[in-house]
Amino acid sequence: MRILCLDIGNSRVGVAISDPLKITAQPLMTIELKNKDLFDELDKIFHTYNIEKVVIGYPLSKLHPDLKDEKLKKIDEISSRIGSRYNVEIVKWDERFSTKAVERVMNEELNWKKKKKAIDKVAAVYILQGYLDFYNGN
Q1: What are the pLDDT digits (tens) for 79-119?
Q2: How far apart, in whole angstroms, are the C-alpha atoms of residue 7 and residue 95?
Q3: What is the tens place of the pLDDT at every residue in 25-81?
Q4: CA 80 remoteness from chain centre
Q5: Burial class of residue 124 in the structure, from the number of CB atoms within 10 Å of its CB (0-12 exposed, 13-18 middle, 19+ buried)
Q6: 3-state SS string over 12-62?
Q7: What is the pLDDT of residue 137?
Q8: Burial code of 30-52, b = ≥16 C-beta within 10 A, e = fewer?
Q9: Whose CA, among 9, 20, 42, 57, lies 20 to 30 Å from 70?
Q10: Taking the model in full, what pTM does it have?
């Protein structure tokens, strides 16, 4: 059984997956929403891997943690659809600074186009690894 992680953006979704022991997170793919349907791609992932749980990056506001903007409402809707479609547990994990942290770490030599494609799936790895460390008591 594995844990899947989604970093949902407006135009792309970064996807990461745990190893079967749920110790490490690996990048899986970036789904370009203008070219592909999210649920068609998730169908393939769920068919290929034994997914027991989906961690979804949830960018809570520092100033108003109880206030939900349009992005959070969209993530809530997608989370609900994933939970019912695949019958899996959904965990919303605070990812406020994941993209910024990844941008700082990524190699400066990557051009912007390559960096843009990689950031989303690497951010998903960052989010999932944070969850796995918490899950495993590290």
Answers
A1: 999 999 999 999 998 876 555 555 555 555 555 566 566 67
A2: 9
A3: 999 999 999 999 999 999 999 999 999 999 999 887 654 555 567 788 899 999 999
A4: 15
A5: buried
A6: EEEEEEECCCCCCEEEEEEEECCCCCHHHHHHHHHHHCCEEEEEEEECCCC
A7: 75
A8: bbeeeeeebeebbeebbeebebe
A9: 42
A10: 0.82
Sign of CA dihedral 76, 81, 84, 85: negative
**Token pair in block for residue 130:** 């944070």
Cα dihedral 102→6→41→23 (10° resolution): 90
- Which position has the token pair 């989604």? 6
Q: Tell me how far CA of residue 78 lies from CA of 19, 67, 102, 111, 137, in angstroms.
A: 24, 18, 24, 31, 28
